[in-house]
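Support request from a user on the community tier.

User writes: "When I paste my structure tokens into the form, the page sometimes reloads and wipes my input. The last time it worked, I copied everything first. Here is what I submitted, just in case something in the input itself triggers the reload:"
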């Protein structure tokens, strides 16, 4: 390899030789990646990932609660707020009940709705103290910031917007999930504005520095070609679900691509014009430009890409989602800065579009460089002091992740928050939830006491404004449930019933006297019954004697009957006995004897029985 080859490496010569095909190839690539798949803003909305860290203890606990209660499996919470200019009445309740039914019917987007205001027992806990506002907590499908989560928020808002509230009543959809959705939409809408303002600023600065319309347009061509290609490549990867995506990726990638592309274009054009001003021809100036900038472009680009990739190791999803897309996008920008940007310089230099329009003043920069080399220590200390001035604000800086501070106040979620804060404390719209889990059924009095003690101890913690639990459905202890109150209340019914108890005592005394008299009567009756028993015993003995006597009479009558039966038979068959005076009395005697004999036999049968 000769000295000429050392000053003009093969890659640089290839870029110069194939400048036009490289430009055409990059144009085709840019068109392809932006036409074959939707724009990156659409991909960010349709393939968005959640912005909440799923491995955080709070997220794990929230989903564990939803699983245990079989209510929800996401971390998206939306608050439905009703506000009126007068205390909410029956008409507001009917409107609220209709909204609840419609929301609960949307099983795709609404997983659970905590209807406290619809239950008379817990209604006071979900209504403001002035009675002019009420709220309901809704758990929607999909995690916060994800595609399904944003769709669920939009579905809830559509149901509320399509309703017709009574006069004087307004309904708002707010809460953490709604705030995240509004923040993403605000970022999408501001993206094109940011890009437009950035382009205008770059044009003005380049026009001031280079004072050449052609140079400004060429720089913008390089920057937007690299940026659109990087956006298209990342859009393809996101569309194929090969990497996580969010609206912040679009903003971060676009900003980095514009900033890096502009810097690299300025490096190239500035070095080219310096070489041309030094008297070099266009070809030599090209190689001087390339040799003096490629390592700077690679070094700075890879540094930024590496730093961006480190965001992938962050736990917070806001930062984690930015890592890989930003790094890959910067690699595309670096590739463009080392290929298509020099190719544009080659083509433009053939027409003299990049030649300097005025002499570049280098005396000031040379003086700064000379001073830095001559007095490195003092200049380092002075630079460090200037940097420390800017770092003085770091100790007092407070990082906030409250998204309400960073989005416009006219967005629906911020309007809903403002309406809620007119009647509720700020914590009511962002409640912290504590679940107590046990290995047995806690629906008993002893466990209820333990749960109330837990709530009481938590309420004593500094920073706790209000606590609602099963023992405190209204946010405060249930009336007439404290032990001192119960003890004091025990004497009241006793005093109220004292006269009644005295009257009943008098009745009991009278009853005791009546029972004494009854006992005397019973004793006398007992004596009479004893006498009656003795008399009955004697009667039984007499009856036995009478029975023996009757048995003897029966036997004698039977003997007499046997003696008189022949005579009675003779007289019975005498046809003229009735006309014979001697026969007639004997006939009557015979009939009486027959009757006596029958009675005696009957009596004998009765005695046997």
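"...and here is what came back when it finally went through:"
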């Amino acid at each position: 390899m000769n000295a000429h080859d050392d000053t003009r490496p093969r890659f640089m010569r290839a870029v110069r030789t194939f400048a036009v095909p490289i430009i055409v190839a990059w144009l085709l690539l840019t068109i392809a990646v932006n036409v074959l798949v939707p724009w990156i803003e659409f991909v960010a909305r349709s393939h968005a990932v959640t912005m909440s860290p799923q491995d955080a203890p709070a997220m794990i606990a929230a989903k564990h609660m939803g699983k245990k209660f079989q209510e929800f499996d996401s971390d998206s919470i939306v608050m439905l707020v009703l506000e009126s200019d007068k205390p909410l009445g029956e008409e507001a309740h009917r409107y609220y009940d209709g909204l609840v039914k419609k929301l609960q019917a949307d099983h795709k987007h609404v997983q659970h709705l905590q209807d406290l205001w619809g239950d008379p027992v817990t209604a006071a806990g979900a209504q403001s103290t002035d009675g002019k506002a009420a709220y309901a907590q809704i758990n929607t499908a999909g995690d916060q910031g994800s595609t399904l989560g944003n769709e669920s928020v939009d579905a809830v808002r559509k149901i509320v917007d399509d309703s017709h509230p009574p006069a004087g009543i307004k309904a708002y959809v707010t809460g953490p999930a709604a705030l995240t959705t509004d923040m993403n939409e605000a970022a999408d809408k501001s993206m094109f504005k940011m890009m437009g303002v950035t382009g205008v600023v770059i044009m003005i600065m380049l026009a001031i520095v280079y004072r050449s319309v052609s140079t400004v347009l060429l720089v913008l061509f390089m920057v937007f070609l690299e940026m659109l290609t990087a956006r298209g490549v990342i859009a393809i990867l996101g569309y194929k679900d090969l990497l996580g995506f969010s609206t912040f990726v679009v903003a971060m990638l676009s900003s980095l691509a514009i900033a890096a592309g502009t810097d690299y274009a300025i490096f190239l054009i500035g070095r080219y014009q310096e070489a041309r001003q030094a008297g070099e021809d266009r070809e030599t100036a090209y190689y001087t430009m390339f040799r003096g900038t490629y390592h700077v472009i690679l070094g700075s680009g890879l540094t930024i890409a590496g730093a961006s990739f480190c965001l992938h190791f962050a736990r917070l999803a806001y930062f984690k989602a930015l890592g890989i897309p930003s790094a890959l996008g910067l690699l595309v920008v670096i590739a463009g800065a080392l290929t298509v940007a020099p190719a544009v310089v080659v083509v433009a230099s053939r027409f003299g579009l990049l030649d300097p329009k005025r002499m570049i003043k280098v005396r000031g920069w040379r003086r700064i460089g000379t001073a830095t080399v001559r007095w490195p220590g003092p200049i380092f200390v002075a630079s460090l002091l200037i940097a420390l001035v800017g770092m003085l604000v770091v100790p007092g800086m407070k990082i906030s992740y409250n998204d309400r501070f960073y989005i416009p106040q006219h967005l629906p979620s911020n309007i809903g928050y403002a309406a809620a804060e007119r009647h509720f404390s700020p914590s009511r719209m962002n409640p912290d939830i504590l679940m107590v889990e046990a290995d047995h059924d806690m629906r008993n009095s002893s466990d209820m006491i333990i749960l109330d003690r837990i709530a009481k101890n938590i309420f004593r913690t500094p920073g706790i404004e209000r606590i609602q639990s099963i023992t405190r459905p209204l946010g405060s202890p249930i009336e007439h449930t404290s032990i001192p109150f119960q003890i004091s209340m025990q004497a009241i019914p006793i005093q109220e019933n004292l006269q009644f108890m005295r009257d009943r005592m008098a009745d009991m005394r009278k009853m005791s006297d009546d029972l004494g008299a009854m006992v005397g009567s019973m004793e006398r009756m007992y004596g009479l019954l004893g006498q009656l028993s003795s008399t009955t015993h004697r009667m039984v003995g007499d009856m036995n004697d009478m029975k023996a006597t009757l048995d003897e009479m029966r036997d004698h009558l039977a003997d007499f009957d046997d003696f008189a039966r022949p005579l009675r038979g003779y007289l019975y068959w005498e046809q003229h006995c009735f006309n014979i005076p001697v026969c007639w009395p004997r006939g009557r005697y015979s009939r009486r004897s027959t009757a006596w004999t029958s009675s005696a036999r009957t009596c004998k049968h009765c005695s046997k029985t």
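Agent notes: The reload is a front-end session timeout and is unrelated to the input. The first helix runs from residue 3 to 7. Confidence is low (pLDDT under 50) at residues 1-6, 603-609. Escalated to web team.
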